Amino acid sequence: MIIGRHKFSMSITEKDIACLKELNSDSEFRKMGSMILAKHAEHVCFDKDDFRIEEGKSRSFASYIVLDMICRKCVMENVDIEEAYPALEESKGELLIICVSKQRTCLSEYKRFSTREISFDGTSTESLEAENVLDKDDENVKDLIRRYGIEVNETLSHHVLRLMERHSNLEAARVSFVRSTKTGYDYSEPCIVLYCLGKTLVPYGEDLFPVSLQHPKTYRTFKTDVREGYFTTCLNEATLRHQELAMGCSIGEKGVNACGTLGPLVEFVKNGDMGFLTVRHLFEPITKPDNHIQGTEVVQPSDGDVISPSSSSDDRICGIVVTSNVGGETDAALIRIYPDRIPQRGKFISVDEDDLNFAGFRSNHQLTFDDGATTDARTLTTEDMATRRIIKIGSATGLTKGTLSTTDGAVRERAKEMMYDYNGRRYPIIINNLLCVDSYYTKIFCQKGDSGSAVFLVEDDANNSLKCIGMVIGNIENDCAGVITPIQNILSVLQNKCGEKLRLKEFKFEKMQG
Prior knowledge:
The protein is 20% helix and 31% strand. It is an alpha+beta fold.
């Protein structure tokens, strides 16, 4: 086989041939071809000349494969580079190797291609600035949300998976009621925000982002707003031991420092056992098959949160993983609680009085969630300000309040570990049908350590009753929007996987006589 200036022999199995014949798109053929070639050309040093040779051939996919192999080697040879991919500069049309890193590498050229460094930690603040100038108490903004909120979310839901498939640099998508422009901000209509790491960089072989998206039935169009930002999970290290488990406390996998949050309490309907929900990405790697983490022991608090290094993790074990799922519409894990850690009611960790006041509670109010009530967030409206009464309690930031803006968003969740099977990108998992909750400027809705936090609607009644709408899986960096998996999706997926009916735990108490 000859690619560029290199000649080498390779064998291809009947299984590989059958797979190639079944492919329906150029992108699928490119991916499969790169995976097959990677096995045989690992020691071949392709460069820009090889790419130019293949680019000049009619209907040749080898040019894509050469670029994929170059990017793969770039990552493998440079420890500070987390991802690499080929892209065109929108204004100049120059083909570059984009190197994504967390610290500068000073790599200006690779295999005779110019490189461009971008950082997961160095994206712009334009999205945060845009959202902060929006006054959601303004009557014009309220009217805008009432008139177009449902329609713009339906538009996003219709297009988002196709956008994720066609644009490998699309990090997340959500709805906003302010659009950033070259001359300022436009509040006249809602828009669909598309997040990427480099606005002027277009991955080789892909199209520009669409400038507008059309509703599938009403045919109303909504403009897009391309902003720099990306999705990140909210894992961290945090806090105290709770003999009776409380929602919002720190949990983690035994022997691992990563910390998440204990989420909604659940009941196994058939036998009455109690469990809780948290995120699947707490149990790394997320690429491991879900059945391989069944039986994993969970500790509270997490190993990373223990003040005393001599503290035994065996004394902190609180349960085991029953089942889990990441991808599609969920990032969730179901934990069965051990008998000695079962709570007697739906308590939360202690929260700050100022946070209680800001969220609309009395400073002496004791938050509990005893009735297991839920509601579908997609049905919430602005008529009674329901979208403004969203709270969560997490191990990192405690009680926070936010505003529901998006009911059908999507994100690209990356594996923490590197998987360069055929190119220079990390393994991505797309999660859709997500809620997005905007932060108030006084306190960010969720941060690292809050993954798994239960999210609630606070009812407008005398008791400020809570109804669970979902669970935090992460946030959009430089935007401060929390990303939430709807509770209905979580329960549906997990009970199908474990074969047991699940519901949020309802604590029943005997009424006092007299």
